[in-house]
Sequence to fold (185 residues):
Amino acid sequence: MVNEKVQTGKVLLAEPFMMDPNFKRSTVLLCEHNAEGSVGFIMNKPLDMQVDELIEDFPDFDSRVFFGGPVQTDTIHYVHNVGNLLEDSFKVTEGVFWGGDFEKLKFLISSKLILPGNIRFFVGYSGWSEGQLDSEMQYGSWLVADMDANYLFKTKPARLWQQVMHNKGNAFTVIAQMPENVSWN
Fold:
C-alpha cells in the first residue's frame, strides 16, 4: 500500500489501534503543513455546546462546536465553504476555507448568508512542531486520505472515520469495518 503525501488539504486518519484519547478514531483536516509544522482540526469529535454559547456577542446560531484538538483549547477556529463571501479566508482545498474576517462572519451569520451547514467551529486545534508529523507518519500513527468537502459539511461525525477509511478502498474497506473495541475471546 502506497501512502499518499502529507500536505495541506489532506485528511489524516488515526490508525485503528491508536489509544491516545485525543485522537482515537479521529479524522483530521490538515489546514497547514510546511517546514515549520502542521495545523489541523479533528472533524469528528462534536462537543455538547453551540458556538453562540461560547462567544460573547455572537448572533444566535444553531451550530455545534467540535473539539479541534488538544492545543490551545481556549481558542475558537472555523472552517467553511463560503470563502467567496468571507475576506481573509485561506483556501485549504476545493470547497473548504479556513478563517476569515471575524466581524464580517458575524454580519453574514446575522444576515442569514452563512447557515450552519456552511461552517464548522472548533475549540482548539491539532498541532505538530517541525518534523513531528513526519515522525508520527513513519511510526505508522496516521494514514493520509484525500479531502472531500462533504466530509466536513454533509457526513455524520460518528461515521466519518469509517467513511473516509472505506473511501480509500482496497484493504482499507476491511479496516473501516473493524469494531472500535476489539476484545480477545
About this structure: The chain has one domain: 10-175. Residues 10-175 form a domain with the VC0467-like fold (CATH 3.40.1740.10). The helical segments are 51-54, 102-110, 132-139, 149-153, 157-167, 171-176.
